[in-house]
Amino acid sequence: MRAFGLLAVCGVLIPSVTAGASDRVVSVDGVRVSVPAGWQRAEAARPGAVTDPLTLLVVGTRGVRPKASRCQIAAYRVPARGAVVVVVGWKQLTLSGAQSQRPGRWPLGSLTAVHRPSFECFSGRGAVATLKLAGKAYQVNVMVGDRASKRLVRQALAVGRSFALAR
Predict the structure, then answer these.
(1) pLDDT class for 21, splitting at 50, 70, 90?
(2) Which of 46, 64, 71, 87 lies 20 to 30 Å from 10 when distance is taken between CA atoms?
(3) Which of 164, 58, 70 has its CA nearest to residue 122?
(4) In 3D, which of 67, 92, 81 has the Cα closest to residue 125?
(5) Average of pLDDT values for 23-35?
(6) 57 CB contacts (<8 Å, ≥6 apart)?
(7) What pTM does this model have?
(8) Which residues contact 54 (CB under 8 A, 6 or more apart)?
(9) 59 found inside a domain
(10) Pick from 142, 110, 147, 150: nearest CA to 126
C-alpha cells in the first residue's frame, strides 16, 4: 500500500515539476499546450484542399513559420536549432482511424524520443501521438531541427505531452 501511495504522489508531482515555473499556456480552438520561455504561437499553414483534419494549434521556437508544402504536418520551416509542435483535430472521428481507440491522454506518454523518418515531407526528427478526447480525435506532432540540442528536444516533447483540451 505504501508503494502505491508513493507512486500516486509521484504521479501528481512529477508532471508539475517537469512543466517548469516559467511555462505559460497557449490556447487556441479549444486545445492548449504549455510552452517554456522562448516558445510562441506560430501562424498555421494554409490548409489547401485539406478539410479534415484541421490544424488547430502551432507553437514553436524562433524562426518557425509556415512554408509551401503538399503535406499538412510538415508545412513549417523548422530552424536547424529549432522545434515545432503542430496539433491537428478531426471533425469526423471515423476519418481519424482512432474511433476504436480508448479515450484519454495516455498516448501522449509515447512522446519520449524523436526519430527519423518521422513525417512525409520532413527529413528531420519527429514524434507523433494520436488520441481521442471528448469524442474527437487529435494528433500531436513534434518536429525538431537537425541541430536541436538535447535540452530543446526534451522541451519539444514536453510541450507535446502537455496537450489538453482548453477549459
Answers:
(1) low
(2) 87
(3) 70
(4) 81
(5) 96
(6) 26, 27, 28, 29, 31, 32, 33, 41, 44, 85, 86, 87
(7) 0.85
(8) 47, 88, 89, 91
(9) yes
(10) 142
Split at pLDDT 50, 70, 90, the class of 20 is: low
* Residue-wise burial string across 97-131, b where 16 or more C-beta atoms lie within 10 A, e elsewhere: ebeeeeeebebbebbeebeeebbeebebbbbbbbb
Domain-located, residue 2: no
What end-to-end distance do the CA atoms of the chain give, in Å? 34
Cell of 145: 531541427
Does a structural domain hold residue 85? Answer: yes
Instruction: State the CATH number of the domain containing residue 137.
Output: 3.40.1000
